[in-house]
Amino acid sequence: MAGLAAAFGSGAMTNSIADMEQSKCFLIIGTNTTENHPVISTFIKRAVTQRGAKLILADPRNIELAKFASIQLRHNPGTDIALLNGFMNVIISEGLADDDFIAARAENFDALKETVAKYTPEYVAEITGVPADEIEKAARMYAGAEAAAIVYAMGITQHTVGTDNVKSCANLAILTGNIGRPGTGVNPLRGQNNVQGACDMACLPGNLPAYKKVTEAADRKPFEDAWGVTLPAKPGLTIPKIIEAAADGSVKALYIMGENPMMSDPDINHVEKALKNLDLLVVQDIFLNETGELADVVLPTACWAEKDGTFTNTERRVQLIRKAVEAPGEAKPDWEVISMLANKLGADWNYANAREILDEINKLTVSYAGITHDRIQDVGIPWPCPNTDHPGTPILHSAAFSRGKGMFSVCEHKPPAEMPDKEYPFLLSTGRILYQFHTATMSRRSKGLVSRTPEVFVEINPVDAEKLGVSQGDKLEIASRRGAIEVFAEVNDRCEKGIVFVPFHYSEAAVNRLTNPVFDPVANIPEYKVSAVRIKKVA
Fold this sequence. Notes:
Blueprint: E1 25-29, H1 33-36, H2 38-51, E2 54-58, E3 71-73, H3 80-93, H4 99-105, E4 106-107, H5 109-116, H6 121-128, H7 132-144, E5 148-152, H8 154-157, H9 162-175, E6 186-188, H10 195-200, E7 207-208, E8 212-213, H11 217-227, H12 239-248, E9 253-257, H13 261-264, H14 268-276, E10 280-285, E11 297-300, E12 309-312, E13 317-321, H15 334-344, H16 354-364, E14 381-382, E15 406-407, E16 426-431, H17 447-452, E17 457-460, H18 462-468, E18 475-479, E19 484-491, E20 499-503, E21 531-537
Parallel strand pairs: 1-2, 1-5, 2-3, 4-15, 5-6, 9-10, 10-11, 16-20, 17-19
Antiparallel strand pairs: 7-8, 12-13, 13-14, 16-21, 17-20, 18-19, 18-21
Helix pairs in contact: 3-6, 3-7, 3-9, 6-7, 12-14
């Protein structure tokens, strides 16, 4: 990301999980933390219940964290930028900004000040549906705290303006000096256990390990020398562009590892056509999932308990995992499968074990240089850790940002790409629930978990249910411009009138058959959180 977001590098948490208990105030926005990150939520709840921290909850749904909130702001989906700009308007106009911090460590403040000037609480109330006095109260609470932390997740990123949503969070933290100290920071919670590590190790189309750029010859050279290859100087495709290229025939073969786009990508009907248009589809996974059913070749791999290696968690902590049981059948660890395939294609890779791969990472990746196999036998180490004498870095940006000074970004409210209308009068949002995980490839194989959430459902407000003649447990058809699914009615007040929520874990009613395939232009993340739908009872 350009501007201030670049100061936060990989999008990792700036502070540690344990550090959250030191916060005096939380702004929780776009994260249903108790269901999606239940362990992390315990640190937040302890800070509130045992240490007297304040909690500002900004979420369209009435989630469990509302029970712990000092202020609950139920803003309209897709209005995060307006809400955050409204906070900054109040903070600047009431003299609550940290002028010393801004002068020392930020630039472009005048542009930010000019931008947020029009986002008065009254104007923001019209956009967000949050009363003006609540916006003022929340802004004062955050700015007035000795140490305030912003915590967000995919409710911030999964929008066509997701990048600007993240920049707005960063703007707010810099404006109040809530960076680089215990209990502060901008803390995105990763969606799966090794997303951070995958990003660190270049599972992004424009990056080399540790966020070096494939476009920079100086960045490529150490890896080319170590691997004896010439690396491409042009970034690859993001997932949405891969799917489009498969659909138009310009990508003819696809190798999918640990991903299930037939459940997780938007507009699944289009995804299915694209995958069927390939000449070759290879799927590497631990179970035969919905995407694997379409594969020409399936490569069975070991799960987390069946292999050695490291995971890098959401707080940047690199932790050792050890093989506990043997993998079934012919399944092998991912690195072995990839190495075997590479050698068939002419490579000469001779890694003996996962430890040797970490040794190579230590040599080639500066932020991981001191995170050796021996040092993390008992306790993981958070990067950056440049040498073996370094303890690791639990709090980022204590002295400076990675780009020097942080740059305030100009972010304007833009409505979602698709809004309700007469034909499709409801706004659909999607997400996860406590008892299932991601595309449920693993979790729906657990009888205990399935017993808690056996059927797919839609949360619908009682007022809307009454208008539609819908009762608890009724079967409903939900349709968008892209497809239709059948679900069961869960009538409650978690959603406001006109808004419905469906979890995306259920293949028999995959909600991503409905979602809109529009993307953030910078990060290419889909707008899963806002789609227009219609609802009717099924006879």
